[in-house]
Amino acid sequence: MNRIFSFFLICVLCVSLVSCASVPFAKSGPKLIDGKPEWYFNPSKDGKIGGVGVSGIHKDGKTGQKQLAVERALAEIARQMGVKVESYSSLQSQTAGGSSSVSGQSHSFFTVDGKSVNARIEQMWENKYSGELFIWMVAQ
Q1: Count of CB atoms within 10 A of residue 49's CB?
Q2: Which residue, 114, 118, 124, 138, is the most exposed by fewest CB within 10 angstroms?
């Protein structure tokens, strides 16, 4: 009886392993090309001007890193529009129990030579090896 039970248990385990191995892992994050997100090379979307801001590790932590990357993305959009940007970002960071979180608005409002322009964050990606933060924004 023990042999039959052991044989049955081994068969169940083998079937479980085979069925788990056939399930593909879910892809997380953007498709990478040469270690960068694909939108880094073509930030415009659906005929709208886009920009990518990149920031390395920042002295003000994740909040400063995100703010700098947003400013750089907005500056890139402005360069494509042939204007100068003055921007405002609202970001907050919290640290509790050894973990930190960064929150902010997904839309940034800024003025360009007296005109109002809206841009929103399409996607953010962090390079886990270098610590660089990539932010992709598209003008509205």
Answers
A1: 19
A2: 114
